[in-house]
Specification:
Number of strands: 0
Largest sheet: none
Structural class: mainly alpha
Number of helices: 15
Number of domains: 2
Order of helices and strands: HHHHHHHHHHHHHHH
Radius of gyration: 19 Å
CATH class of the largest domain: Mainly Alpha
Shape: globular
CATH architecture of the largest domain: Alpha Horseshoe
Strand content: under 5%
């Protein structure tokens, strides 16, 4: 194991506390591992230690990220997500397979899924838009986190008005998904798309409202003007 990973984990263990571990677990239905360090502090620790490796090749940094992921601790995964995002300027098409592996193998809660996908994978897809086709394959996965990832990867691009056609395709695939965290994920994606394409998203929601789960429906219309929300809520 790399010495820098040892240092990070020792530091996290030393400052972690039971109160933070207990309060953090309340946000998750799944049993999740925590050192007990608040996110802003874990972020700072990761950022401080990144200074020592920032001149490494991206492949070396990704190897360290994977070592962090392997522990299963939330704080380690948060640092891994941040480090992979820090080197986004060096992304190449082949990196998609690495991100896919991380989601499929290591992600086991909504926070790790969203942190990795909102930033690292989202930035990658903006650089290489053709890989949205890969997200559409994720939407068909048996892994709930892959399905959520297919949607939440597009949150930030959606706010910029990008990928609307693809967003609707992914929403169609996930439309009747029984998993509430997947429903929240694609509802959030639609809500983000509505910031730039309000009419198109509203029309989509109205067309699908009879089959769209209530959770996804409420997420999708959350930020719309009151008159549109009232119209959407009508029987």
């Amino acid at each position: 194991m790399n010495a820098i990973i040892d240092k990070i984990r020792l530091e996290l263990k030393q400052i972690g506390d039971e109160k933070t571990r207990t309060s953090s677990q309340r946000f998750f239905k799944e049993k999740t591992k925590f050192y007990g360090v608040k996110n802003p502090i874990a972020n700072k620790i990761g950022k401080d230690h990144f200074k020592a490796i920032k001149d490494k090749k991206k492949t070396g940094i990704f190897t360290l990220c994977e070592e962090l992921w392997r522990s299963g601790y939330m704080e380690d995964s948060l640092i891994a997500c941040n480090w992979s995002y820090y080197v986004r300027k060096d992304f190449v098409p082949e990196d998609f397979k690495i991100f896919e592996k991380w989601v499929n193998t290591f992600v086991d809660n909504w926070a790790s899924c969203d942190t990795l996908c909102n930033h690292t994978v989202g930035a990658f897809v903006e650089m290489y838009p053709e890989y949205v086709s890969g997200l559409k394959k994720w939407a068909l996965s048996n892994n709930r986190w892959m399905r959520r990832a297919s949607a939440v990867t597009l949150i930030i691009p959606a706010r910029k008005g990008k990928f609307l056609k693809d967003i609707f395709e992914i929403a169609n695939t996930l439309l009747s998904d029984p998993d509430d965290l997947v429903q929240k994920g694609y509802g959030w994606m639609l809500k983000a798309a509505g910031e730039a394409h309000q009419k198109e998203v509203f029309d989509y929601v109205m067309e699908k409202k009879q089959v769209m789960p209530r959770t996804a429906f409420r997420y999708a219309i959350e930020k719309m003007p009151e008159e549109l929300k009232e119209k959407a809520m009508e029987k």
